[in-house]
User: Fold this.
Amino acid sequence: MKIRLTFSMVALAFTAALVAQAPAERAAAIKEALAKNAAALRQYSWVETTTISLKGEVKKQEQKQCYYGADGKVQKTPVPGQAAAPPKKEAPPARGKRGGGAVKGAIVENKVEDMKEYMEKAAALVGEYVPPDPQKIQAAQGAGTLKVEPAGGVTTLSITSYFKPNDSLAIGFDPAAMAMKSYNVKSYVEKPKDDDLTLAVTFAALTDGTSYPAQIVLDVAAKKIQVKIANSGYKKTAP
Assistant:
């Protein structure tokens, strides 16, 4: 999953968006700023911790060391020393009608596997929204689904149908403080209303002032699934 991007230079995008006269110019300014952010982050490596929970119970947790490869894509390797996955429980012996227990056990196992696949699908959606894709932002500008609205000292950039039909992405930025205030997504995994999800990002700053998404939380309320991604241990890599 591509889930990394610094946001310090997004300030330039929003400032330009406020003064630009044409929608195309606003989209170009945002796209340029996001590209600069991506370039700045490529000098760092970090640790990504992903936790997937179902009904409040942790079902999967893993850590990966992340860095940008020569091709510009994020490379991930498992952090050594992680605990192995719990062994799969054996199906209980058949009881009652001949073969009935075995059939029931197979059905239960299939349901468990389906839920695992569903949780992985939900987790994968994080990479579709974080970081925001400059090309999708430009496309939204052209389609007329992007709005820039200043209110109460915060400028909000809102996009509808960003990745899926009728989803929404909203980025709140404070031009005075030059800081990201909010980053929220409303979408769904498979079907609108049946499995709606929300995604929120909490930001932090590195010692050089670079902002980064410290925590990403995705909730699928109807399924009681939550995905948390924490990013930490940022270090500059050798040139």
